[in-house]
């Protein structure tokens, strides 16, 4: 009998100015399966790599850090038009029963967006977006990204840029 376990998962991302952004998810896996930890590790790594392809920020750590055997190396994105952590790509997913979740990617790369600079390209031509959507929607072994109640995401609704507010202590132009 399957025993699904839902775990909180968060990744920390550090922008070039030193600000930390956190992305939060839930990951569900069958802990009665012999490959439980392997599946969980593969899903955690896949999602981390997919988010890393979307952001200009450097990976700084994870709440499930036990799955990362080496410390993070600070490596920033390849185009810095949205370099600050408080600028976010908001990605919206839904489940089969209509539950909607929004995930915020800090310091998104400009090439993720359509010519308006605000709408995420959702036409399958942007490899980084496709990899991220697959990481959220697809099952790895018995592990998948889910709602807090364990429901799998089945639809990518799209994404938009949200500029957010500039922190007071950060008072210089970008």
Task: Summarize the topology.
Blueprint: E1 4-14, E2 20-30, H1 36-52, E3 58-62, E4 88-94, E5 100-106, H2 127-137, E6 144-146, E7 155-162
Antiparallel strand pairs: 1-2, 1-3, 2-6, 4-5, 4-7
Helix pairs in contact: 1-2
Given helix and strand content, the structural type is: alpha+beta
Straight-line N-to-C gap: 54 Å
Please bin the fraction of helical residues. Answer: 10-25%
- The average pLDDT score comes to 85
The succession of helices and strands, N to C, reads EEHEEEHEE
Indicate the low-confidence ranges by residue numbers.
Answer: none
Assign an overall shape. globular
DSSP, total strands: 7
**In what order do the strands lie side by side in the largest sheet?**
3-1-2-6
Gyration radius from CA atoms, angstroms: 16 Å
Q: Strand fraction band?
A: 25-35%
The biggest sheet amounts to: 4 strands, antiparallel
Q: Helix tally?
A: 2
């Amino acid at each position: 009998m399957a025993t699904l376990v839902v775990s909180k998962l968060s990744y920390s991302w550090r922008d070039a100015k030193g600000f930390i952004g956190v992305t939060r998810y839930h990951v569900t896996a069958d802990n009665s399966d012999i490959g439980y930890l392997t599946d969980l590790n593969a899903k955690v790594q896949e999602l981390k790599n997919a988010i890393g392809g979307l952001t200009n920020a450097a990976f700084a750590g994870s709440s499930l850090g036990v799955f990362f055997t080496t410390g993070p190396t600070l490596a920033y994105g390849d185009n810095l038009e949205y370099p600050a952590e408080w600028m976010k790509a908001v990605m919206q997913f839904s489940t089969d029963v209509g539950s909607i979740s929004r995930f915020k990617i800090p310091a998104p790369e400009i090439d993720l967006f359509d010519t308006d600079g605000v709408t995420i390209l959702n036409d399958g031509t942007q490899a980084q977006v496709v990899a991220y959507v697959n990481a959220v929607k697809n099952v790895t072994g018995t592990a998948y990204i889910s709602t807090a109640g364990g429901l799998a995401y089945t639809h990518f609704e799209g994404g938009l840029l949200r500029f957010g507010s500039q922190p007071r202590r950060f008072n210089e132009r970008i």
